[in-house]
Amino acid sequence: MSKNYSKTNPLSYALFGQSFGIILPIILAGSFGVLYIKSFGGSDRLALIFSSIIGIMPIVKVPASLMISEKKGKTALLFFYTMALLVVVSSSLFFLLSVGDERSPIALVASLAAFYFFVELGRTFWWPILHGLIKQGELGRFFAKLRTSWGLCAFISSIAISYYFKNGAFPQKFIIVVVILSILFFIRILIFSKLPVVDLQEKKSPLLIEAIISKKSWTIFGYFFASSFLLSFLQAPMTLYFKKIGIPASSNIVLGSLKLLAMVLILPWSGKIIDNFGVRKPLKAASIIVGIVFILIPTITHLGLKNPENYFAALIVLSGGINAIVGLSFTAVLFKNSPSSGKTFYLTIIPLMAMVSQSLGPLAFSVFIKFSHGPKVAVFENSFLTVGLLCFLLAALEITIWSKKPVNI
């Protein structure tokens, strides 16, 4: 397959469709979603629970991958994305026309959970469709280009939203943003309808079972489960922490969007590195750097520096770049080790087991907040310091144990 993704190439539809449509799920899963719930009067725990729901929701991919034929993957993807669009638009219009107590934060979280329920069902068939369109030697570069494209679109959207919120973040403004981004989600559905149907083999195969239970798959799972858990503290907990130390909503959204900017800057060259040199050394460095970031966050607050947002911004860009490398590495390794049959189930179960850990960070944090005493800011800061030390431990494990495993990742 050519490296030039022209207008007639099916991968062009994948690039453009994903760039438009992923903005809404990405924005809602970040700082915007947390502040959206807070604007409705939701508590910190409810915002953290919502973040956990997003992380747990990919579990619906398992029954979908088993119950729906791989040959009907494209049809299922379009159907579930359409259902997600109907849920988010109808609920947004309801909240827009409602007043006062009718805007329940619990009802908002329920509607957003329903949206992600259908989004994840549709995503079940996204990677298997791509798998048949990409050459093995171009995995890193293609996914770098794909993630750079939608990351840039999401970053620009975040900056526009923060400017829109400059004079205040009211519930009506959040709802209007969601409705506008829903239009882009609809464009994604139209573009994806032009993707070709990939001829996939039957899912029940000895190759599939062997691939799932292999030492290679479980080594991949173990590292990325731990990495995803630790990196999840850079999501909702970080947004709530910035809110508690007095950073306004517009600046908070900008800080959250800087992770996307870092992805745009780093992915183009990281894809080539992964294709040519593998992922081991970047992953070792990633754990150490993220550990330093977590320790520096509360340190900057207590130093009493002028305009601490600037220092936080630098740390978020750094951690966002690391997060992008880890995610790209995971995707490339999965595609490289995918069996010749049963791609839908394999590309569902292994990422699910690893990435569901993203929900455990905010969930554990919400429980920690409930039973902790003392100033809430101190609770956040102690948690960040603990996670930083765990990152160093992960790096030590990767260097001393996992790197000796006979696994080509």
Which helices and strands occur, and which strands form pairs?
Elements: H1 10-21, H2 23-29, H3 31-39, H4 44-56, H5 61-67, H6 73-97, H7 105-123, H8 126-131, H9 139-164, H10 171-192, H11 206-213, H12 215-231, H13 236-244, H14 249-277, H15 280-303, H16 308-336, H17 343-355, H18 357-371, H19 376-400
Description of the molecule:
Helices cover 77% and strands 0% of the residues. The chain has helices at residues 10-21, 23-29, 31-39, 44-56, 61-67, 73-97, 105-123, 126-131, 139-164, 171-192, 206-213, 215-231, 236-244, 249-277, 280-303, 308-336, 343-355, 357-371, 376-400. It starts with 9 loop residues before the first helix and ends in a 9-residue tail after the last helix. The chain has a single domain (10-404), classed as Growth Hormone, Chain: A (Up-down Bundle), CATH 1.20.1250.20. The protein has 409 residues and is mostly helical. The protein is built from 19 helices and no strands. The protein is globular. Helix 13 packs antiparallel against helix 19.
